[in-house]
């Protein structure tokens, strides 16, 4: 290395003040104030989460037992003991059926948006309306299924609940799957096309497998969300006190509905059951969420 | 498999061959059909609910939304179904929710995009994800059994301190059970924070690095950089996020039904019980018949129309903000 | 050196091109406003630039050239602590400004950037009006007095005033690329820094806009010290008094490190380079 102009030290005297003290008090204060406010905002989000988690664990843990998960629901709120067996059965069956309906439909909808519709006007309308549908209140979806299914077949059933949950899940699955399909590099599509594969074959054998982990995790998050929905269950599935394994015949119940019904009772026994049901529900929901996160972090396609 | 065994094609045909071309067409029509399902469901919701609510609309006319009395079983005369009190409750609880949730959400989004050291970013995102994952009925349960009783002394204190002030004092009136507009708003705030945060964060993260660098290179502090470079770029997107949060708050049913108190009430007093449209439906649907059911479904129609309107607007605002951002980057 | 300074600052602006060829005897150390002493820049554990030692002379244009990936922009950003916001970025060695180490513990990066401004590769005006872009730095720095006068002065110095004086309230994004870049220069000089760092300021511009910026760069040496990174050797030869040539080396561990090869007066570096690698590069035998 050649240096034609060698460095020379120069005394600091006479140089500008570069220390923090040179920043005007007002500016420094505003900056600190803003930083502090941001930290407070984060704390304000952490506190309720911590409190809810703690309370549900403490109160729900108190009543948790194998018999709580197993036994029938007492048909009087006042009575002590009993369990949430029927509600757990209902939640798993109803949510599972909803997923069976919504996920395939949603994925195909996403395939339309990303592989066929792209930026066409119709695709843009469907995209916009999917986002809008995500915002439709679940109670309205409950009313819709009540009118168009329960009134039609003449009784409240678990399947009606599954229909309502499926309607709530559908737009979420569509949009999250579309995001995942978009991450699949075009090179893959072109490579498959260049081998002479038809578009539908390319989509099903190349594009979909490439995005499947992301689609799975997005769908599981939608399932987790649906498992906690309450209002439509109350309106369209009715209530039972012993397990009903048949979604198409007779009323059913689910954990969120049981939490709601028991929470507003003045009786300690009912409130305990509500906490126990809340703990059970949170474990189920978090289970789905954690599996989803695991899948998406483990098998994610690298973004760009 | 060996290629040599394949019989050579007599003559290559480059025109579409019937069966697989048909497969392509069937497949594309099928996916289009599933896409159209979204539009079909939205359309059906509108048609079926309006039809089913018609007896109530017919009986009440415009009074359905201007009347504050809701009396399904009057001692004498016809039942009265006026949604105004519930619309008021929906509006007040949602606005309280936004008042608390918006600053907190913007703060968390700034934390995630500008402030957090890398090792805190992951945990902070997890907190927001978990907040979003907790079912609303669990927040409702916590709200009615823990938060509402715990807040009564605080409400009482605020009433004692601010209650005497003219005008402002009317907001801090006498305190009842702790189940009131304020508690409903606070619980709603917790529930809409994740959605506002996640969209706001996305918007902030699209602010070009170059803009932030430009501000910093002029000697801006971090806060001045945020004000000068981040906020102007993301204003539209944040507005959209707030509207989405509003839509979510208005439609939230269960948690509000548990903590708002269940009274047909229009009052400035935030510590008084009230009710919201969504909450009334779920509370009274089980015991309703005839016109009463129609009126509850009518509340659903109003709710549907309002949330769809707000969501469409919000989506358009967010999309436009995103498009403009992309335009200015190029 | 004093005579040189005089020579340069009083030179008529018509003869702005190739000032590097006319400077001589710039070895005087007391005219250096900044000094780099054994400066290395790390991203995490990766050493992006290794041991850089060079002066930045007052009221002169110093160019940094070299193939892409040689670390010239990284060094430039180290001069006003713009690497700070990048997680894991770290600087070792001394970056002296009037003898004061910019990375000393009590130094505030905000004060540093206020005195050592920066113009970026792509024009990046804020999505505000032309006026507000220039006034932004003044406002945050609480510069008192008539804002309008300061804005006009900065825009005039940036040779943009005549083009925009009738549309100060219009969005800056409506300007052409070259105008936007001059606006960014105006925005930078409005806060009256001593040094202006320019990171390939013309790479996104057409030749005419580039020529205007080059003229402007020479004008600015009346008041400012300029450090410019460029991938364009002709540009370095045209506008700079001193040139630093960087290159990328691959070490035993197969890692690339940027490295300063040669620093000298521009005329000397381009006509009589001391290092073989410099010669290869400027004669086009490299990269």
- CATH architectural grouping of chain B: Orthogonal Bundle
| CATH fold-level topology of chain B | MetI-like fold
CATH architecture verdict of chain C: 3-Layer(aba) Sandwich
Number of strands of chain C: 10
Gap from first CA to last CA of chain C: 36 Å
Global morphology of chain C: globular
Q: How many individual domains of chain C? A: 1
Q: Residue ranges of chain C: pLDDT <50 for 5 or more in a row?
A: 1-30
Total strands of chain B? 2
Q: Please report the two chains with the greatest interface, counting residues with C-beta closer than 8 angstroms to the partner's C-beta.
A: A-B, 87 and 89 residues
Assembly state: heterotrimer
Task: Sketch the major β-sheet of chain B.
Answer: 2 strands, antiparallel
Distance between the termini of chain B: 50 Å
Strand content of chain C: 25-35%
* Helical residues, percent of chain B: over 70%
N-to-C SSE series of chain C?
A: HEEEHEEHEHHHHEHEHEEHH
The percentage helix of chain C is: 25-40%
Q: Segments of chain B where pLDDT lies below 50 for 5+ residues?
A: none
GO biological process, one term (chain C): phosphate ion transmembrane transport
Keywords (chain C): ATP-binding, Nucleotide-binding, Translocase, Transport
InterPro entries (chain C): AAA+_ATPase, ABC_transporter-like_ATP-bd, ABC_transporter-like_CS, P-loop_NTPase, PstB-like
Organism (chain C): Micromonospora sediminimaris
Structure, described:
With 304 residues, chain A is mainly α. Chain A has one domain: MetI-like fold (Orthogonal Bundle). Chain A is 72% helix and 1% strand. Chain A is flat and about 80 Å long. The two termini of chain A are 39 Å apart. The longest helix of chain B is centred in the first third of the chain and has 43 residues. In chain B, helix 4 packs across helix 7 and helix 8 packs across helix 9. With 330 residues, chain B is mainly alpha-helical. A two-stranded antiparallel sheet of chain B has the order 1-2. Chain C has 287 residues and is α/β, with parallel strands linked by helices. Chain C has a single domain, classed as P-loop containing nucleotide triphosphate hydrolases (Rossmann fold, 3-Layer(aba) Sandwich), CATH 3.40.50.300. Chain C is 33% helix and 25% strand. A ten-stranded mixed beta sheet of chain C has the order 5-4-1-2-10-9-3-8-7-6, sandwiched between helices. In chain C, strand 7, helix 8 and strand 8 form a beta-alpha-beta unit. In chain C, helix 4 crosses helix 5, helix 4 packs parallel to helix 7 and helix 7 packs parallel to helix 8. Classes of the chains: A mainly alpha (304), B mainly alpha (330), C alpha/beta (287). The interface between B and C is medium-sized, with 21 and 28 residues.
């Amino acid at each position: 290395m050649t240096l034609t102009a060698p460095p020379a030290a120069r005394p600091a005297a006479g140089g500008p003040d570069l220390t923090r003290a040179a920043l005007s008090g007002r500016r420094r204060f505003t900056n600190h104030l803003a930083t502090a406010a941001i930290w407070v905002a984060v704390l304000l989000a952490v506190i309720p989460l911590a409190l809810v988690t703690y309370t549900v664990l403490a109160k729900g843990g108190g009543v948790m037992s194998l018999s709580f998960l197993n036994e029938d629901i007492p048909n009087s709120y006042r009575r002590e003991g009993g369990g949430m067996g029927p509600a757990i059965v209902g939640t798993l069956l109803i949510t599972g059926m909803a997923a069976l309906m919504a996920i395939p439909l949603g994925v195909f909808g996403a395939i339309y948006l990303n592989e066929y519709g792209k930026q066409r006007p119709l695709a843009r309308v469907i995209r916009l309306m999917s986002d809008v549908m995500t915002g439709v209140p679940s109670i309205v979806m409950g009313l819709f299924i009540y009118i168009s299914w329960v009134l039609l077949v003449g009784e409240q059933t678990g399947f009606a609940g599954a229909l309502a949950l499926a309607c709530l899940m559908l737009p979420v699955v569509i949009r999250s799957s579309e995001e995942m399909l978009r991450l699949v590099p075009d090179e893959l599509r072109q490579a498959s096309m260049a081998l002479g594969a038809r578009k539908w074959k390319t989509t099903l054998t190349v594009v979909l497998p490439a995005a499947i982990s992301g689609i799975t995790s997005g769908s599981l998050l939608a399932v987790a969300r649906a498992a906690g929905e309450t209002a439509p269950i109350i309106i369209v599935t009715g209530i039972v006190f012993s397990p009903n394994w048949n979604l198409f015949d007779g009323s059913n119940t689910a954990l969120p509905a049981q939490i709601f019904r028991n929470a507003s009772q003045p009786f300690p026994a009912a409130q305990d059951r509500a906490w126990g049901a809340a703990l059970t529900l949170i474990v189920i929901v978090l289970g789905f969420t954690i599996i989803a996160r695991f899948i998406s972090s483990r098998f994610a396609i690298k973004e760009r | 498999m060996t290629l040599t065994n394949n019989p050579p094609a007599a003559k290559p045909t480059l025109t579409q061959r019937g069966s697989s071309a048909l497969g392509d067409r069937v497949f594309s029509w099928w996916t289009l059909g599933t896409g159209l399902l979204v539009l079909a469901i939205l359309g059906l919701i509108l048609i079926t609910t309006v039809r089913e609510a018609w007896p109530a609309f017919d009986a009440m006319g415009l009074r359905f939304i201007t009347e504050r009395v809701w009396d399904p079983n009057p001692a004498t005369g016809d039942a009265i179904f006026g949604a105004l009190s519930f619309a008021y409750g929906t509006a007040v609880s949602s606005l309280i929710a936004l008042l608390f949730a918006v600053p907190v959400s913007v703060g968390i989004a700034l934390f995630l995009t500008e402030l957090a050291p890398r090792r805190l970013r992951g945990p902070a995102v997890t907190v927001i994800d978990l907040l979003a994952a907790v079912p609303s009925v669990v927040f409702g349960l916590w709200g009615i059994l823990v938060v509402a009783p715990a807040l009564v002394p605080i409400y009482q204190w605020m009433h004692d301190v601010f209650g005497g002030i003219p005008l402002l004092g009317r907001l801090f009136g006498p305190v009842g059970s702790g189940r009131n507009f304020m508690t409903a708003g606070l619980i709603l705030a917790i529930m809409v924070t994740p959605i506002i945060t996640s969209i706001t964060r996305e918007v902030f993260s699209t602010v070009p690095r170059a803009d932030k660098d430009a501000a910093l290179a002029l000697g801006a502090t971090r806060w001045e950089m945020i004000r000068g470079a981040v906020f102007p770029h993301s204003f539209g997107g944040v507005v959209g996020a707030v509207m989405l949060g509003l839509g979510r708050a208005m439609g939230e049913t269960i948690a509000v039904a548990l903590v708002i108190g269940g009274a047909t009430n229009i009052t400035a007093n935030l510590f008084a019980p009230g009710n919201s449209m969504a909450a009334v439906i779920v509370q009274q649907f089980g015991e309703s018949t005839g016109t009463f059911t129609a009126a509850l479904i009518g509340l659903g129609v109003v709710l549907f129309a309002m949330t769809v309107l707000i969501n469409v607007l919000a989506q358009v605002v967010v999309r436009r903000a995103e498009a403009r951002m992309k335009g200015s980057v190029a | 050196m004093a005579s040189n300074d005089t020579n340069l600052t009083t030179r008529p602006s018509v003869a702005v091109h190739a000032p590097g060829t006319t400077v001589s005897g710039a070895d005087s150390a007391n005219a250096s406003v900044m000094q780099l002493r054994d400066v290395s820049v790390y991203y995490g554990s990766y050493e992006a630039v290794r041991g850089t030692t060079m002066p930045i002379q007052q009221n002169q244009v110093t160019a940094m050239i070299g193939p892409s990936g040689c670390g010239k922009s990284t060094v430039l950003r180290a001069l006003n602590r713009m690497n700070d916001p990048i997680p894991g970025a770290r600087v070792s060695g001394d970056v002296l400004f009037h003898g004061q180490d910019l990375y000393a513990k009590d130094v505030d990066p905000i004060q540093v950037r206020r005195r050592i401004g920066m113009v970026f590769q792509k024009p990046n005006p804020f999505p505000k009006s032309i006026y507000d872009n220039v006034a932004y730095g003044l406002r945050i720095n609480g510069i008192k007095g008539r804002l309008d006068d300061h804005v006009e002065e900065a825009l005039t110095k940036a040779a943009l005033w005549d083009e925009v004086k009738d549309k100060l309230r219009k969005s800056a994004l409506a300007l052409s690329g070259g105008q936007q870049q001059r606006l960014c220069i105006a925005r930078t000089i409005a806060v009256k820094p001593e040094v202006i760092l320019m990171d390939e300021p013309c790479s996104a511009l057409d030749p005419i806009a580039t020529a205007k910026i080059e003229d402007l760069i020479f004008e600015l040496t009346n008041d400012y010290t300029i450090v410019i990174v460029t991938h364009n050797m002709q540009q370095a030869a045209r506008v700079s008094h001193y040139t630093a040539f960087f290159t990328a080396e691959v070490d035993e561990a197969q890692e690339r490190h940027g490295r300063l090869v040669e620093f000298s007066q521009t005329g000397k570096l381009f006509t009589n380079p001391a290092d073989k690698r410099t010669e290869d590069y400027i004669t086009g035998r490299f990269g």
